Amino acid sequence: MTAAQPVPAARPVPAAQEGAFGALRSQLQEAAATFADGPDALEGILLGIVDDVDRAVREPLEIFPVCHHSPASALAMARRLREKQPKVVYLELCEDMAPLLSELRNCRLPVAVQAFATEVDGFPAEWAPLSVVAPITEASAEYQAIAYALDTPGVELVLVDRSSDHVFQWQPREAAPADPADPDAPPAEEEAALHGDAVGVEIGDLRPRFAELEEHLLRHGKVRHWSEWWHQYVELPLGDSDHDTYRQVMLLIGSLFRRLAPGDPQRVTVDEDRERYMWTRMREHLAATGTDPADCLYVCGAFHAASRVEEFGVHGADGFAISPRSATTWQHGLIPSSHAAIEAQFGLASGSVSIAATVWAKNLKRTGVKPFRLEGQAGARKSTAKKTAAAAPVAAAEAVEAVEAVEASDRLSGFLQRPPVIDRLDEEELLGWSVEIVRAARRNGYLASTADAIAVFETSILLAGMRDRAKPTPYDFQDAAVTCIEKDAVPGRRDVRRLVESMLGGDRIGQVGYDALPPLARDVHDRLAPLGLRLDQRGVKRALLDINARPELARCSDVLWMLRHLLPQGAARPIMGQRSLGEQPIQESWDLALGTHQRALIELGYEGVSIEQVLEQRLRRAAYGPQATAAVVLEAVEDATRLLRSRRLADELGLRALEVLAAERTVDGAPEVLRRVRRLLAYYRTSEPVLPAWIESFVKAGYAHYCTLLPTAFTDEDATVRQVAAMLGFLFSMEGLALSLGCDRTQLELAVAQSHPEEPSRVALLWAAQVQLGRLTRAQLRERCDELLANPLVLPAYPRYLSGFVHALEPVPGLTDFVVEAVSTAFGRLPDRVLLPWLPTLISTLRGGGAGGGGAELAPLLIREAGRIFPGRLAALDAWIPPWRAAADGGLPAVRRGGGLPGGALPGGVALLREHPGACDALGALLGCEGGWEAAGSGAGGAVLVGRFPGTAVAMEALLAGG
User: Fold this and answer.
1) DSSP letters spanning 217-282
2) Do β-strands 587-592 and 572-576 pair in parallel, antiparallel, or remain unpaired?
3) Percent helix / strand / coil, the chain, rounded to 5
4) Can you count the helices (H) and strands (E) in the chain?
5) Mean pLDDT of 457-483
6) Among candidates 781, 737, 774, which has minimal Cα distance to 753?
7) pLDDT for residue 852
8) Closest CA to 547 of 582, 590, 572, 584
9) In the predicted model, is pLDDT for residue 158 greater than 90?
10) Radius of gyration of the chain (CA)
11) pTM (2 decimals)?
12) Which of 52, 71, 511, 918 could join 306 in a cystine, given CB atoms 3.0 to 4.6 angstroms apart?
């Protein structure tokens, strides 16, 4: 008891004030003295529980304690509403959710009432977006109260709990609001994520907050989890109890858990403030309307019904100040929910809500109680609430007179002393379960037979007997089925435990009707109506769009591409077709699951009235966010052009990209910037008469920006080779446009000259840049590679040089043949003992994982070039001579500097030049050679030029021969 909240010592109660619970107090005092060796804290706790029950029972405004999604609570609520016929129902639910409750009739339960805020004002920015949900199922007391109040004339429903804004106002600011789900709950699947990261609001948070107490109850109750304990020891005993017994037992449990809760100041403060808030709102309403408290019913969780705050009751103390709401704008709506989502969010055992729904249906059939259902509710029969409305005042008056005439009697003593009710075994029901689970197991790949059905039947009875139960519960049956059928393997997607949950009720998933959807969601369904699909249904629907034959489907295509960008993956998935810059769609195929992702579509409606507006807001938010980079803003520009076809927004975001690029001091986004700028330039050059002003400014600023960062990036350890290569790619590929806009090429030459890398791959990248600028010839580059291969100390680092050459193909694609030559030369000259250690580095580079990635994009260039150079047949490989070795090996006539050809013979190219002297004269004039043609053999004029530069003639001959 040391971890529990301290409680005041029990004070003697005069005989005149003992009331209906005097005998119970005496028995508890004797028990406390016997088991605690004298009056102490135990007596104070036990008598305090009785005081809490007595206080709540004597309250003039009737308090109806409930538990979240409890069939017993729902059944007792339906009974009490028909007996009392209250005029006002106070409900523990966020007061700002009241306007949404009437829309429940347009939905199929379970659904959740949601308050959503995308932009926060008054809360930490990292909390956004804010979301509060209150799930509602048919087997819940709150739904019975809502259905009664909304469909009964003259009845008012008043929500009295704190607003959604106060839910977050009362959260500690040092940490983001945590999901209240139990961390030990089973892992959630797709349906369990229907509530997302929302904070759950439940009516009746009835679970021990003292871990030792819950462990004690589970151990002595011979159950595995709290849901099973509640089903066995509360649901079943209270299922057939009268109103007074139900009420007093629930108050007792709530008081017990409250007094044995750990002393968490933050949580205790929030709980008590909620109770003060609710009682303040109820007294305000009573004072404003003049309603008699005897005509009201207060529905709240049993934990809050046993409140000890001074503001408790209609005659409680006043003075609790309710803080004003923040400036945050809240949106409200209904989202689909499911049994699995409720279990995951509120820490319930898997399948417990489905079992509760089954128990609810059985209780209604057994007791004959008529539940309340909203008129027009999907799957509901016609309600009788209106038929009984005329007699409501008379019945309410009679009930009030009966309550005043008869004092509340002590039902707790009898309930606590009553032995467990022996519920006879329903063999027909258990046998049906056993047969059905075997049938389901066989459908899912298990080798189950009739013998397994018999074994499940007998094992269920055996387990119930071992746990002191006369009748097997669904949890006993589930354990028996797992033991007898599952064996040691699961052949299908679902194990036996999930099969039992599905068989006993399954995971029921709710749906929000069309009329209850926000305008954006209704607009999406209207615009996709030409597809002729039931997009409100769950599951995947295949949509085929022949836009060429039906041009009106182009608008559907626009909507689908925007939804693909806004909704989670899988809501709208293209199978055939793509939306790229400047491309007109012809035919498309889509897999649509809008019904499955209805929650995400509804939450889009909180951000705007159309998907175009929401998409524009998202793009602006991404571009103007604190973490925005030039690459991110350029992506937003591309999406604005590709999805919205908005030149206005693209130009605005383009100017933003220019600002962000100028403020960047790193080159992390250089590859993405290069890729997107190239794509945008290609689009504008083919679709616009002139380039937009922003992209010209971007190229000009980017040229100067990357020239400034280039020397530092070459030596920066944080910058990868791919990023440096992307910078060079931007500079070389945009050079023509940048120079035409007024940039100076000298800036680039100086930047390259000031770069002095030491890492091998960056050195190779610098050599490639020097080749592109004309500072280094191919012959000199080849000589440097030969020197590297000839140096044994450098050989281990040679693959990193090759990696640099591969990345150099991005800025200097003309070096593709040289990279093929370098790789082939290395493999031809070096032995296997040297080559084998190279392979991991070389392969990782070509696959994109080494040296900063990017090799996978450049590998096709090497493959195509190798296919062009190497022979196409294996037989020709032996006689094949690489082009770079042809001159040295005699494959082509070797030319000696200044000496002509061997034997004085002239190649065919020289004869060709003599036959067409015009080209040779032009080249001679360009090179500064004076004089004209002389007679054959004189060695003057063009022949002198050929003799001086014989390589040109040889190359031309090889070119013509190849042609």
Assistant:
1) HHHHHT-SSHHHHHIIIIIHHHTT--HHHHHHHHHHHHHHHHHTSB--HHHHHHHHHHHHHHHHHH
2) antiparallel
3) 55, 10, 35
4) 42, 13
5) 84
6) 774
7) 41
8) 584
9) yes
10) 41
11) 0.70
12) 52
* Percent of the chain with pLDDT strictly greater than 70: 77
Three-class DSSP labels, 867-914? HHHCCCCCCCCCCCCCHHHHHHHCCCCCCECCCECHHHCCCHHHHHHH
Do residues 301 and 203 touch, judged by C-beta distance below 8 A?
Answer: yes
Q: Which of 166-175, 309-318, 716-725, 932-941 has the lowest mean pLDDT?
A: 932-941
Task: Convert the pLDDT of each residue in 683-692 to its tens digit.
Answer: 999 888 899 9
CA distances 490 to 42, 498, 744, 758, Å, are 49, 11, 70, 57
Distances (CA, A) of 898 to 197, 202, 441, 932: 81, 96, 91, 20
More confident residue, 493 or 917: 917
- Per-residue DSSP letter, 797: G
Please give the single-letter amino acid code of residue 298: Y
Given a cut of 60, is residue 466 above it in pLDDT? yes
Answer whether 699's CB lies under 8 Å from 741's CB.
yes
Task: Answer yes or no: are the C-beta atoms of 332 and 602 closer than 8 Å.
Answer: no
Residues 6 or more apart in contact with residue 521 via CB below 8 angstroms: 598, 601, 602, 604, 605
Q: Where are the beta strands (DSSP E) in 572-654?
A: 572-576, 587-592
Say how far apart CA 133 and CA 194 lie, in whole Å.
11
Beta-bridge partner residues of 298 = 63, 90
Residue position matching structure tokens 């196409």: 872
Whether the CA torsion 32, 37, 39, 44 is positive or negative: it is: negative
Type and span of the H or E element at 136: strand 130-136
For residue 757 the two structure tokens come to 């890398």
Predicted pLDDT of residue 446: 85
The DSSP code for 4 is B
Q: Token match 């005509």: residue?
A: 295
Q: Which two tokens stand for residue 608?
A: 């705007």
